[in-house]
Amino acid sequence: MQRIQLLRLSLCAIAVSSLGSPVLATDDNLVEKGRALVQQNCSRCHAIGTKGESPLPKAPPFRIVVTRYPVEDLAEALAEGIVSGHPAMPEFVFQPPQISAILAYLDSLKAPVDSK
Q: pLDDT tens digits, residue range 79-92?
């Protein structure tokens, strides 16, 4: 339960697409749409890029969140709308196309894996 609350506090609202297919950050347009959505909805509190501190110290940078939780695992809670115990965080609910874009953007924040 505590992990779910931390997850909800950590992210705005994200979920898998209606098809439930895995997110691959290969479509630059989809990634850019996701970046625009998190910029608009999440950046007041969270650092959304690969660098920088979050404007709200208790709000973890998204680049850290994606190392703690598999992006795909965020789907259900975020599709239904995130409600956190943190009173300053608004509830967000997105539609499947927006969700796919946000997941693609978050996936793009992961550090590349060395294939050696």
A: 777 766 677 778 88
The CATH number of the domain holding residue 47 is 1.10.760
Give Cα separations from 96 to 31, 76, 102 (angstroms).
14, 11, 10
pTM for the model stands at 0.71
Domain that holds residue 94: 2-108
Q: Is residue 54 part of a domain?
A: yes
Taking a C-beta distance cutoff of 8 angstroms, is the pair 103, 71 a contact?
yes
| Helices 96-108 & 28-41 angle (0-180, nearest 10) | 100
Count Cβ atoms below 10 Å from residue 19 Cβ, excluding itself.
8
Q: Measured between alpha carbons, how far is 54 from 24 in angstroms, rounded to an integer?
A: 25
